[in-house]
Amino acid sequence: MTLHAIEITLTRSVDTLELRAAQQEGRLPLAAADDRRRLVVLVSAKNEGRAMRKIWKRLEDALPIDVLCSLFPGPDGKYLMSIPMSDETYERIQAGASAEGKTPEEYLREAIVQALARERTTRRAQLECSLNGLLRTYSPEEITGAAARRIKR
Q1: Mean confidence (pLDDT) of the chain
Q2: What is 113-129 written as a DSSP string?
Q3: For the segment 79-94, what is each residue's pLDDT rounded down to a tens digit?
Q4: What's the number of CA atoms in the CB half-sphere (13 Å) around residue 95?
Q5: DSSP annotation of 77
Q6: CA 124 to CA 120: how far, in whole Å?
Q7: How many CB atoms lie within 10 A of CB 65?
Q8: Above pLDDT 90, what percent of the chain?
Q9: Torsion angle (degrees, nearest 10) of CA 36, 71, 123, 133
Q10: Residue 143 confidence (pLDDT)
């Protein structure tokens, strides 16, 4: 068995008593970040997928888990994530994947890549709009002077 480091992102912060109770109930060593919304757990399992299933099984009712994510990338350079979803959502993903002749994993991977590309495009457009507003309001010298002062801080 191999040890796998998994990050647990919670939907809310947990207090010390809740964390201690979850640790005892799940029989897993948990380390909390300062914000107590992120935890790291070491799990012994044959692979990361089984490690995540073990965490869900042991901690699902003890903690308000939002997402599980491998702490380190796998040999392919990718991180493994486990996100709970309703049956309706899962059925929609399966139907979409089936319609495109893909596995649900491939379908989700492509959807995430497309969403990230849209986000980058939107962010670039917002930046250009803000920059155009600055250039209409201030001279290039005022802008570079303000930037230089900010960098010196």
Answers
A1: 90
A2: HHHHHHHHHHHHHHHHH
A3: 888 888 888 988 999 9
A4: 6
A5: S
A6: 6
A7: 20
A8: 52
A9: 60
A10: 86
